[in-house]
């Protein structure tokens, strides 16, 4: 009997599997976005310092660079491998798909990243130790390496939403995968937010300077920098939303009312902060600037990342790897077969190689155990399964329903693919029955 290429099940209780990756990824993105934005800012400041003969700007760059070394390159370098670890555990077939499509792109990105890491150390260390023209060239090289790193990563991340064209499925070509409809709007969206974040970090550094005149000047400049980054972010966000696939647009229409309300509030709040920096720089002190960094990270970055991950469903990569790791369509260019049809024909218990032999046949004695295992395989990449689950708790959707109602829902919704943001999974009746019985057994009992 044909087996599907599943991996052993990984499940993180209470929170759910995918959220561990999301939390780690958000921390990493905050650090990495600061890095690229700062690289562009460094190039601007170094150019200004060289052309206008302003040595005091080098001292500011040195303070900024030391912060960057710790915040972006220590935190970023820890959480970067953390993403690999959590993503490989939570979504091994998703990571496998990315590696098989982009192995040489990733290798090239690592070369740029090594140059970046060495570059930021050299940038800080050689201030006032080499001639300023050479230092200026170093800042330009650092900025180019940072943007190069970003561009290569964005092509990969954009493919996670979708290839953007049908040619990829037939050719399997890396260029067809990399240059999708979302790649460039996504790139400029990220650059905008990175510029914004470089200004936010710059406000923290500027607010600690002793020279009042220089302090106010740099606070104003950082406020203007953040305004520019925010404007680019908003415009490119709207552009990006026009390039996403239809299933993502359906989800976006569901979330849009809340998104628009939140976005308007955030734009007003952040614009007010940046306006204060430009018009009343004396109001900006270090504690205020640090608090605003966390406000922008929590209320600006996290919702955006959460939205991007949410509207990609039911897929995790390329519109062919479902979030539950099952291949949802044929991809001839990669010799990938649609596994939904295989599971429908033989059942998940028979074709998943990691099902213990004692559970491959459902009996009255093991039915609840089988139901729990099938639920974890099919649902836990998006849902927490405990009654106390924190994120997308599955059980709350079935409160008040009996086994037959639960099974009917699965047979007429999940099995038919009627819900656009949930993977299509068509199982034999006995496997649906086991899932329904386990879910019913976990629901709170009426008193």
Report on this model:
- This protein is mainly alpha-helical.
- Helices cover 69% and strands 1% of the residues.
- It is built from 15 helices and two strands.
- It has helices at residues 17-52, 56-90, 92-125, 132-161, 167-171, 174-178, 183-206, 212-241, 246-279, 286-311, 339-346, 348-351, 367-379, 403-414, 429-442, and strands spanning 315-317, 321-322.
- Strands 1-2 form a two-stranded antiparallel sheet.
- Helix 3 (92-125) runs antiparallel to helix 4, helix 4 crosses helix 7 and helix 7 packs antiparallel against helix 8.
- The chain is elongated, with a radius of gyration of 25 Å.
- The mean pLDDT is 88.
* Mean of pLDDT: 88
Distance between the termini: 47 Å
Largest sheet: 2 strands, antiparallel
Which structural class best describes the helix and strand composition? mainly alpha
Over the alpha carbons, how many angstroms does the gyration radius reach?
A: 25 Å
What is the strand arrangement across the widest sheet? 1-2
Relative strand content: under 5%
Q: Which residues sit in consecutive blocks of at least 5 with pLDDT less than 50?
A: none
Give the % helix. 55-70%
- The general outline is elongated
How many helical elements? 15
Order of helices and strands: HHHHHHHHHHEEHHHHH
Q: How many β-strands, per DSSP?
A: 2
């Amino acid at each position: 009997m044909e087996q599907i290429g599943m991996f052993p099940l990984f499940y993180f209780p209470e929170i759910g599997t995918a959220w561990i990756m999301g939390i780690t990824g958000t921390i990493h993105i905050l650090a990495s976005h600061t890095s690229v934005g700062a690289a562009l800012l460094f190039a601007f400041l170094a150019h200004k310092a060289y052309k206008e003969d302003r040595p005091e700007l080098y001292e500011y760059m040195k303070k900024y660079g030391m912060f960057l070394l710790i915040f972006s390159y220590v935190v970023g370098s820890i959480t970067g491998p953390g993403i690999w670890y959590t993503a490989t555990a939570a979504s091994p077939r998703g990571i496998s798909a990315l590696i098989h499509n982009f192995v040489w792109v990733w290798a090239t990105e690592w070369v740029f990243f090594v140059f970046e890491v060495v570059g930021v150390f050299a940038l800080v260390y050689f201030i006032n130790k080499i001639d300023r023209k050479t230092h200026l060239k170093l800042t330009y090289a650092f900025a180019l390496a940072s943007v190069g790193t970003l561009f290569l990563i964005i092509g990969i991340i954009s493919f996670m939403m979708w290839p953007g064209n049908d040619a990829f499925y037939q050719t399997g070509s890396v260029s067809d995968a990399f240059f999708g409809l979302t790649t460039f709007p996504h790139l400029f969206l990220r650059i905008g937010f990175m510029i914004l974040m470089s200004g936010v970090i710059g406000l923290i550094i500027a607010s600690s300077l002793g020279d009042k005149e220089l302090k106010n000047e740099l606070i104003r400049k950082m406020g203007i920098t953040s305004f520019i980054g925010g404007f680019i972010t908003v415009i490119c966000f709207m552009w990006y939303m026009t390039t996403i696939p239809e299933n993502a647009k359906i989800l976006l229409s569901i979330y849009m009312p809340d998104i628009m309300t939140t976005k308007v509030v955030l734009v007003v709040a952040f614009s007010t902060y940046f306006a204060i920096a430009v018009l009343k720089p004396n109001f900006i002190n270090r504690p205020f600037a640090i608090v605003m960094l966390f406000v922008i990270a929590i209320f600006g970055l996290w919702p955006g990342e959460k939205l991007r991950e949410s509207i990609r469903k039911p897929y995790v990569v390329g519109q062919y790897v479902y979030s539950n790791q099952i291949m949802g369509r044929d991809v001839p260019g990669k010799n990938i077969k649609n596994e939904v049809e295989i599971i429908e024909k033989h059942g998940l218990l028979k074709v998943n190689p990691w099902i213990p032999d004692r559970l491959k046949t459902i009996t009255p004695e093991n039915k609840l155990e089988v139901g729990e295992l099938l639920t974890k395989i099919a649902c836990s990449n998006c849902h927490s399964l405990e009654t106390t689950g924190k994120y997308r708790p599955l059980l709350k959707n079935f409160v008040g329903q009996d086994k037959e109602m639960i099974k009917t829902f699965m047979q007429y919704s999940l099995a038919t693919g009627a819900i656009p943001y949930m993977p299509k999974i068509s199982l034999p009746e006995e496997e649906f029955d086991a899932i329904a019985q386990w879910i019913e057994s976990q629901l709170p009992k009426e008193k």
